[in-house]
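Data availability excerpt. The first of two example chains:
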Amino acid sequence: MARPVNGRSALPRPCKVVKLPAEMTRFSQPQSEGALLDSVLSELAKEHAAMEISGWETGFINLSRALDGIRPGLYLLVGAPAIGKTSFARQLIDQVARHNHVPGMFFSLAETIQELRIRTLARLSGLDQREIRRGSAYLLHWYGVPRLPSGEANDLPPSWEKLKRVAEEAKTWLDSIYLFECEQTTTINEIEMQIAELRAQTQAEQTMVVIDDCQRLGRVDQPQETRLQIVAEQLQQTARSFNVPVFAVWPDLESGSGTVAQSWSEKSAAPDLVLVMKKDSTRSITMNDPSQAIVLHVVKNRGGEKGQLAYDFMPAFARFTEAQ
């Protein structure tokens, strides 16, 4: 999924300059920051004229502003089980692919590909996920195109026509989304090989990577905090090696013990950004079922803002919207 210092150095004795073999010269001819200043300012001016944020649009206005867009690095999304982390991650990668025309790779270590597709179809069509699953009697095949045992289109209920229509409308950006259903034994090295293979296949240098339930990449005999440290460091190296954003989803198994969101900023030094998802019990009282009030706490953001972002989450449609 290495970067000289002005002034004089006091040396104890003259140094002998040794010329390195060609295969050992990793860097090009060095240039000073002063010599490069004009070209650097030119590039910055060009980017400033092109966009209001330096990274990719997330599809969520407030989130894009708070994060300054999605940029290469490790993003950690933490939340209690069943709070909506997978739905949020799936919606985010869909929106990034749609708004920025870049490929998205979603590695699932818990959900099936079928379930991930149903989440997207429910969000786009406004059809309840349960209704779409009941339609699986028609053998749901590839984003809302069902295969009927009888082969007769008249057997389809009206909702399937809506499902097919929105799927067809989304096909242009769905062509940029790649889903991977991982085995229990899947390793980070295997994920990196898949990233490299897709980049070679699509000739796309830029891509967004989501790894759901990434705690499963660690050893099961390790405590959660130890596993988080190791997995996060490995995924940060993946993000740096490929120069891509890696969005890692991690369960908060201690959420019932009263843990505060801010504590996650100190659990691992590796992530460039940490988002903690919590239910907003106060605002939830004023909402109608089945909507839920969610707060996304930005507890770590290197070089960016920290704060809270409010969302309305509708589990039936796997849809997040920014709260007014």
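And the second chain:
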Amino acid sequence: MEPAETNRGPAAPAFAATAPQCPRARGDGRRPDQLRPVRFHNHIAPYATGSTLIEWGNTRVICGVMVEETVPRWMKEQGVVGGWVTAEYSMLPYSTLQRKVRDISKGKLDGRSQEIQRLIGRAMRAGVDLVKLGARTVWVDCDVLQADGGTRTAAITGSYVALGLALRKLVAGGTLAENPLLRPVAAVSVGLVEDTPLLDLNYDEDVRAKVDFNLVMTATDEFIELQGTGEKGTFTDLQLAELLALGKVGIKQLVAAQEEAVAAG
């Protein structure tokens, strides 16, 4: 499979941010304000209602969407109108250099995976009119094939594309009268590495970062979630503002790539 193509029609092209005011290069040659290349390979899972493989640098995540014509029991019991969007996330055993044990072999979902899949679900619900969705449940499944930093941001960004493809298919097939998508949703990481604000941390940068954030935002500059901490140090309000500004630049570029991938079908 060629990296610039989907199974049906062209995918979003290799994509990287451009801004000449930050000349200093990073270990992989990027500027501090530059995204890693992002590609989408649509329809990677033929039985899913919508699916894409997002390649973001060396991180690769399959995002698939399937629909059930029912809603969770709590919605029925509480008389909640509309539908629901939920997510599951996992890292495959061969996604890291050392084999990752499957959760099923431990008998429970690890805390990190649980946190991330809840985050994905919240992010996707923020992009959908649940009333227009109707009394149905949309499942978003994210499986990490290869991890090199930013797996949760890649999962969220890819999930929106898979969701967009799925909902378009439901409209085309007459299941939905109108598309319930409200606005694109994307996510990106930012951090301070050696006191330099960086956009889109890879693994090497992530482990060295003294401060790192994950920004989950809409295309209209609204925050869905902001996860951040001083891992190895503190940060000032000025540094926070710089990181948020970097993140917003990245989100706008990711949204453009998402919209192109969904439009490609």
